[in-house]
Predict the structure of ABC transporter ATP-binding protein.
Amino acid sequence: MQQTNGRNTSPSEPLLAVDGVTLQYATRQQIVTATHRVSFDMYEHDRFVLLGPSGCGKSTLLKSIGGFLSPVEGEIRLKGQRIARPGPDRMIVFQEFDQLLPWQTVLQNVVFPMRTAGRFARGEREDRARAAIAKVGLGKFVDAYPHTLSGGMKQRVAIARALAMEPAVLLMDEPFAALDALTRRRMQEELLDLWAEIRFSMIFVTHSIEEAILLASRIVVMTPHPGQIIAELDATRFAHDQSGSDEFVSFHKQINGMLFGQQKVANG
């Protein structure tokens, strides 16, 4: 595996360590091996993107980090502690728009996980929810119901709900994939702006090379099924890139070649 992340002598311990993780799940016909001995370290404030073709196990890996699936080999540690179950220190934003409770307002949806997890004092939860909603640009919609919101607005509410919990790591499973191209681009920019303000730690799953380059500080490139890591790449310099620079185009071509097995190019 190529490692070009510049962290060989990091002064800090990893926030998240994925150590030799093999994941399997059962279908009606067979046991499927989703990933094979995957290892990587994620550090605080990373924008860490898992990039690979459909079926390479990246979403399954995200679910395992979330605590919903136990490895059959290896382990995942958060702040040095093995992950064995879901917890409020890991919040997931999914692709589907319908992850909000339709009978609750935007404010109530954001408060809900804090209340069910018993997180923060009762009087503090609404203040935190309002602050998170304002950060995603929906301060005027606190009393709106999900059916009145666009797809992009619903995803903003889901992000606000996750961030209000102050998780150690925010897990995002292709959250913009179902949006139209213009809304998706706007949401990518808004996510980068939000990260610049709050500096949260994020693992983002995508099969879009362009999205990975735009959003990541580091990219893990995965092989087709079963997923293995073929490279870790530094993408920090491309944040907010409009996809037109020669360097961006060259980097895109390199990753495309790696994904399709045409070449293995180190990211200098």
